[in-house]
# Entry
Amino acid sequence: MNGKTILVVEDEASIAEVVTLYLKRAGFDAQVASDGRKAMNAFERGQIDFVILDLMLPEVDGLALTRWLRDRSDVPIIMLTARREEADRIAGLESGADDYVVKPFSPQELVSRVRAVMRRLGREQAEVGNERSLSFENLSIDPLSRTVKVKDAEVELTAKEFDMLYLLARHPKQVFTREQLLERVWGGSQYIDPGTVTVHVRRLREKIEDDASKPARLLTVWGVGYKFEP
Ligand code: CA
# Structure
């Protein structure tokens, strides 16, 4: 037992059962809620360390439930979606889910994703107050002096360009939506057009890429957002 309790919110009993079985085998405690309302009740009773929830739920749907959870806590959330549409995945991430898994999925894969999200969030917490410099081939980023060097030559970045590059580079290969970048880099305190992100990515590419029209570092994930390739 590792002491973590995972709430599985799924109205299809057979799926809830197999997911629970695999989670328990992996050493987690698991509870099942068969609709959104029951999930809220379970969460309010406390002791939930992680939530796996289905997008399609009776009573309160998965997106509304995710927003409800996010208003109250930073509990890690993985969303299950039966549909392959990008719009659902983006809506899931924007509502505050940390990751999503498309049905049908293998229970073992889901357990791996749970562990990956736990590792990732654990690292992020450890990073708070730990501004470490990053070096990649031909690119180094120093958050203390806020300098970026490309092939040993310093490049001038604006404050927001630096913040965005540092955020993406600290999480290599992790996809961020435009809205997540706005939230994390601009603070989300005021309305800023998501196009702002696109413009900043373009300027960053011109400064750090060999060929800005064929980026090798700041990659576009079509229909979702951006990621940093280490
Ligand atoms: Ca369902």
